[in-house]
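Minutes, project check-in
Item: structure for the 174-residue chain
Input as provided by the requester:
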Amino acid sequence: IVDGTASVSGAATLSSTLAVTGAATLSSTLAVTGATTMSAGLTATSLTTNTISANGSNADLSIQPSGTGDVLISALRINGTTLDSSDSTSVNINEALVVDGTMNVSGNTALISNLTVSGTTIFEDGVTAESLITNSVTSNGSNADLSLQPSGTGDVLISALRVNGTTLDSSDST
């Protein structure tokens, strides 16, 4: 039992439990072999390890930043529900991606390959396309007209048939 200050110089080996009430200061390395329990938490400015895991059955692993800080994993930054790149480049998802809820995209979207859509698709503000390849174009209103409108003074071409306003002629002069 030490009731005051204890000072140990050199190596010391404890073969039982070391209980510290109050503050303890180590000015060198503390080496622990075997399981260690920190019952009131652990504060560290740095942690070097290859594995961080939860020890409770089916327990979550929670990593919480301080204040308005972010969680950084390499160049990936997580802040609340926002996932972005901490080095201002991009976030790459190199495997299949499944979105079970509604996906809202703000800003421009570039698709480098094909876009395959199954089911009904609604474009609220129209569609601009260089070409449309399909076997059928239909209107979706009951008894609605199908309207093809050229831009400016352009014509509507249907195979060799040309429509310009109320004029109907053959675009190949036959």
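Outcome recorded: The chain has a mean pLDDT of 84.
No further action items on this chain.
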